[in-house]
Amino acid sequence: MQASGTQWPEAHFNSEKMATLAIAGHEIAGLEGIRYPFDGTAIAQTLGCTMGEGTYDTQPSIHDFPFETIEDVKDLTVPENFLESERIKTILDATEIIKKRADEDIPIIAGHLGPAAITLSLVGVRNYLMWFISHPDTIKELITFSTDICIEYSNALLERGADVVCIPDSEAGPELIPPEFFETMIFPEYKRLNREIKGKTIAHICGDSADILEKVAISGFDGISIEEKVDVQYAKSAIGDKACLIGNVSPVHTLLGMKPEKVKEEAKQCIEDGVDILAPGCGLAPHTSLNNLKAFVAARDEYYLEKGLL
User: Fold this and answer.
1) Is 106 left (phi over 0), alpha (psi -120 to 50) or beta?
2) N or C: which end of the chain has fewer CB within 10 A?
3) How would you label 147-180 residue by residue, b for 16+ Cβ within 10 Å and e otherwise?
4) Where is the Uroporphyrinogen decarboxylase (URO-D) domain (predicted)?
5) Regarding the domain delimited by 10-221, which CATH topology (the fold level of the hierarchy) does it fall under?
6) Which helix (H) or strand (E) holds 204?
């Protein structure tokens, strides 16, 4: 952020600053893609959640949610002005700016929350967990509605210039709900999501997602991003050639907390173990050093040079 001259929280809410900071990850740190926005509250805020804007080194956060009781869940349709709402329009405008400013061969990766994450944002953690058991029909209705939101928003991002849509949906993972709930409630919507989005998609699930990887792999995503809790070799065997495996260098323990040499060591091991695309296991921590990011990028090149593949 310091090197780009643009910082949080302004870059969350201003399309020019968002584009500048996103491009800086490529131009300054050498990352091969341009990934934005930098938080996941835009959809939730647009649908009625209250939030705080965050600080220089903390992301915006949701403070309250609109559906506190079952009776609150009604008239679930995508708002007519959803794409024109302030937060969403800022990100769509940033997409167009990035498309104009970035080199054609650099992938533009737009992110937004997935169906389970949107649902949790709307009802809160307690209701989300309880209603899977006590009111499964309501949860199913909310997940279907949230999938509709994802489809409309993803297609708008792709139309504006994004090459890929990355969909973080950790709330679908087995660290929060049993795999059986994923299979009956969320898996069918993932398949619909990928049928109706007119471009490439990536699923990202934080935590240990091992128990659902096979299902995620056959739901139609082009890539699956895993964090460091998942063994790469197991993930590769579960996914096979159904999707690209992306990950999974620890963003906190390694990229934030280690020296460049250790960053390179872990990055090279990830490639050796079978990742198709080297990436952090989740979002970068704000105080991650530029030296570590450059070491992360260099590790990929060094690995392939050492193997005689470059």
Assistant:
1) beta
2) C
3) bbbbbbbbbbbbebbbbbbbbbbbbbbbebbebe
4) 2-303
5) TIM Barrel (3.20.20)
6) strand 200-205
